[in-house]
Write a structure and sequence with these properties.
The structure holds two protein chains of two kinds.
Chain A lengths: L6 H9 L6 H8 L1 E6 L11 E8 L2 E8 L5 H6 L7 H16 L4 E7 L6 H5 L2 H13 L5 E10 H5 L6 E5 L3 E3 L3 H8 L6 H7 L4 H6 L5 E3 L10 H21 L2 H13 L4 E2 L1
Parallel strand pairs in A: 3-4, 4-5, 5-6, 5-7, 6-8
Antiparallel strand pairs in A: 1-2, 2-3
Helix pairs in contact in A: 2-11, 4-6, 8-9
Chain B lengths: L1 H13 L8 E3 L6 E3 H6 L15 H8 L6 E3 L4 E2 L8 H12 L5 E8 L2 E8 L10 H16 L4 E7 L7 H20 L4 E9 L1 H4 L8 E4 L10 H8 L10 H6 L5 E2 L2 H14 L10
Parallel strand pairs in B: 6-7, 7-8, 8-9, 9-10
Antiparallel strand pairs in B: 1-2, 3-5, 5-6
Helix pairs in contact in B: 5-6
Bound molecules: zinc ion.
């Protein structure tokens, strides 16, 4: 029973409610999970968590961007804006998943990678590029789910996958509507107008071949019924993970490559 | 009489008292030098060695062997994937002005006899932002190189995403990186040459994936734009932040090479990796 809302209304819903975060979903979707820390190169980024746990009894690797539920949590997780070491931790754990033949489940929920001096100095571009390239050929199934917002390359670094699902009100965009309006029209206040022409909703993603599935939210949004939305997420994963795990891995990799290879519009 | 008239005119244009030759103002050192001198040096600032922007056509001319370039997909043009207002009109105007159909030219060529696939981005075309055409041409170039066992040399430049293509623009990062990985997994050599400016999604995809990463002196390289960072941290950044030399210092670049030596360095690197004077089909 999906609701008709404008992109702008969905943005408000994602930002201005007590929308559940990965920390709410973890105990309701997975069991026996242990969080794993650090990239083994520089540090441990709190904007991305990694964990090993079980889904319906099957071991899985979980990689997720973390939003805070209040200002203190948000300070701790840097408002879900990762530094390079967050992406490098993600890659380390993804490779470990490949080694132990566990599927990888990524939860995307970020306004974008952090823009700052340290992030540049430690090679943000390289960190994202490497994740994108390595996830493309990772020899284990990868499923990504956009929980709230997926902003730019900082989202795509966890978004190269066999199937992408969007929560019904989630958005995926190349930059924020505000940034879009300020660059294109030199007027950040036109962000609502920008949001409506940018094509950022879950339906847009399915139409453009970016996402395969929309996970329905409870009436009024995910925050209205945490148990229900968790159940919907789990139901989706319980169906898609076994399906992908049964597939021949070379076949799966060919399909993963093709999924991204065919996105684009041109005339010859 | 006509001769006299001609003299007056040339005098007026070439050295009359109030004549001012066109000048180049360097974005790095702010120094002024005669435009003719800057052009003579193939757009390198005579004062500080900043390597300015070349058109894709100029870059190909100074890099590959004469008459060796065979272009791929020259006629490919973008359509309008998210029906963005005035996107088609804007492109039509740029095509006229630049002689390009989009922001990258790809093809095969030889460099001092060594065959390779070459791609060159051109910042005159919508700041070399990456849309469907850039993504598709680059992916095809790497796939061709993989199938034909050729090395790839990419001259990168980009202001970031092609906003007019929305999320489709972002997905080109995955498309191009996937093709780079495919070429790499088959043992192909990929040399990236970072040119001014290489930023945004191009930095966060194929520009950072070269086996060897070269940069031209004093060029800008980064993921986030300078102004975006300044707004986030609310302080002015040092002048050398995100310059080639800065990123070299931080360990993200193998070498900084001057334009006048580039062709010969590339030729040596190709030969070091076994790409000698073989036919391009081998
Ligand atoms: Zn200068």
């Amino acid at each position: 029973m999906s609701e008709n809302k404008t992109a702008w209304e969905r943005i408000q819903l994602v930002h201005n409610t007590g929308r559940p975060t990965i920390n709410d979903y973890l105990p309701l979707v997975f069991t026996d999970y242990y969080e794993m820390h650090g990239d083994r190169l520089y540090g441990d980024d709190k904007a991305i968590i990694g964990a090993v746990g079980r889904l319906d009894g099957r071991p899985v690797t979980i990689i997720a961007q973390v939003k805070g539920r209040d200002i203190n949590e948000n300070k701790a997780c840097n408002f879900a804006m990762p530094h390079p070491e967050g992406y490098r931790k993600a890659l380390r754990l993804a490779r470990q998943a490949e080694k132990f033949h566990r599927p990888v489940i990524c939860f995307i929920d970020t306004p974008g990678a952090f823009c700052g001096i340290a992030a540049e100095e430690r090679g943000m571009g390289e960190a994202i590029a490497k994740n994108i390239a390595e996830f493309m050929t990772l020899r284990t199934p990868i499923i990504s789910i956009v929980l709230g917002e997926a902003g730019s390359g900082g989202a795509l670094a966890l978004g190269v996958c066999d199937e992408l699902a969007m929560l019904e009100n989630a958005q995926y965009s190349v930059l924020s509507p505000r940034g879009f309006a300020s660059i294109l029209w030199k007027d950040a206040s036109r962000e609502q107008e920008a949001s409506e022409i940018m094509r950022i909703t879950a339906e847009d993603m399915v139409r453009l071949g970016v996402a395969e599935t929309i996970i329905e939210e409870p009436l009024g949004g995910a925050h209205n019924d945490l148990d229900k939305i968790s159940e919907n997420i789990k139901e989706y994963l319980s169906q898609v993970i076994p399906e992908k795990c049964q597939k021949d891995i070379d076949e799966l990799l060919k399909e993963r490559y093709t999924k991204f290879r065919k996105i684009g519009a041109f005339i010859e | 009489m006509f001769e006299d008239f001609f003299k007056v005119v040339t005098k007026r244009f070439n050295g009359g008292d109030d004549y001012k030759p066109p000048m180049f103002k360097c974005p790095r050192c702010q120094g002024l030098s005669p435009l003719s001198r800057y052009e003579e040096l193939h757009r390198v600032c005579p004062a500080c060695n900043y390597h300015g922007r070349l058109s894709a056509q100029e870059r190909i001319a100074i890099t590959v062997d004469k008459e060796s370039f065979r272009e791929f997909d020259g006629g490919m043009k973008s359509s309008n994937p998210i029906d963005f207002p005035e996107y088609e009109e804007k492109q039509e105007e740029l095509r006229e002005r630049t002689g390009l159909n989009d922001a990258v030219i790809t093809g095969t060529a030889t460099i001092k006899g060594s065959p390779c696939v070459v791609g060159v981005m051109d910042s005159r075309y919508m700041m070399a932002s990456m849309g469907s055409v850039v993504g598709e041409k680059i992916a095809r170039a790497f796939e061709y190189a993989a199938a034909n066992k050729l090395p790839v040399i990419m001259f990168t430049a980009s202001g970031g995403a092609r906003m007019q293509e929305g999320i489709v623009s972002l997905m080109q990062m995955a498309k191009t990186s996937g093709a780079v990985k495919l070429h790499s997994d088959q043992g192909g050599l990929y040399i990236t040459v970072l040119t001014d400016p290489t930023t945004g999604g191009v930095t966060a995809s194929f520009a950072s994936l070269g086996d060897i990463i070269i940069a031209e002196p004093k060029i800008l390289i980064g993921f986030a734009g300078r102004r975006v960072i300044e707004n986030t941290i609310r302080q002015r950044l040092p002048d050398d932040f995100q310059l080639a030399e800065f990123m070299f210092e931080k360990g993200f670049i193998d070498m900084i090479v001057e334009r006048r030596k580039m062709r010969s360095v590339l030729s040596h690197l190709l030969k070091l990796h076994g790409y000698d004077k073989r036919g391009a089909e081998q």
